[in-house]
Specification:
The chain is of the alpha/beta class. The chain contains nine helices and nine strands.
């Protein structure tokens, strides 16, 4: 695919791996590469599921700070809205997507986890998970707040979103960023096994459940992303 994103097929599972050599920033280039990867696997009827994996020590630390630091609002909004479109795609994807969080998942990296069906994370307590926007002088994008409200535990959502609480992996599972915490060297293997288990699902029924249970959320995300783009049009 590219230097940043690779696609590997393992029987009935597609493994899409992010590795920019640094923190897997969700830059416009990374977003384009991820969309190309998902385009490649979306129509493959032989696949039961998709694994989205990070590099050793990091899933994704969020949006590209170089773009954020330019002060170019059009470029910033385009990147953030593009991130929303990618997370929205994950949440609507016609095959189950399993995250292999091999390390930190912060800000947009945490939003990406929320878009995945099942999330496996490392048990390394040095790994950090959460939404730090309020701590760095930002307000969550509307689309991010919508999916956070949908996926995070009611008991923890306020502290995660309003108080920018960053946690280790065990607490991240309680909050709702992760579903399973496993040994660091078992994250990818566990995610692949989970994705392979989805051969038991009927694809048409799965698509119907996406529409039934996620349709309203997806429509609200679409509206929020469109509003963001219109703000700099």
């Amino acid at each position: 695919m590219s230097e940043r994103v690779t696609v590997t097929i393992d029987d009935a599972v597609a493994i899409i791996a992010m590795d920019d050599g640094k923190v897997n920033a969700l830059s416009p280039a990374m977003q384009a590469d991820l969309h190309a990867a998902f385009d490649e696997v979306e129509g493959n009827d032989a696949l039961a599921g998709v694994v989205l994996a990070g590099r050793t020590g990091v899933f994704s630390a969020g949006f590209d700070l170089k773009v954020m630091g330019t002060g170019d609002m059009a470029a910033i909004v385009d990147m953030v809205a593009g991130g929303g479109e990618f997370v929205r795609r994950l949440f609507a994807f016609p095959k189950p997507v399993v995250a292999a969080a091999t390390g930190h998942a912060l800000a947009a990296g945490a939003f990406t986890l929320l878009g995945c069906d099942v999330r496996f994370g490392t048990d390394d307590e040095g790994a950090k998970f959460g939404m730090n926007e309020v701590a760095i002088g930002m307000v969550l994008p509307g689309w991010a707040a919508i999916i956070a409200d949908t996926r995070l535990s009611n008991r923890h959502r306020h502290r995660a979103a309003m108080n920018a609480r960053i946690t280790g992996p065990v607490q991240a599972a309680e909050v709702g960023f992760l579903d399973e915490v496993v040994a660091a060297d078992a994250v990818l293997e566990s995610a692949i096994a989970e994705a392979a288990s989805f051969t038991a699902l009927d694809p048409k029924s799965y698509a119907g459940m996406i529409k039934l249970h996620r349709g309203d959320v997806l429509a609200r995300m679409d509206a929020a992303i469109a509003a963001d783009r219109a703000s700099v049009a």
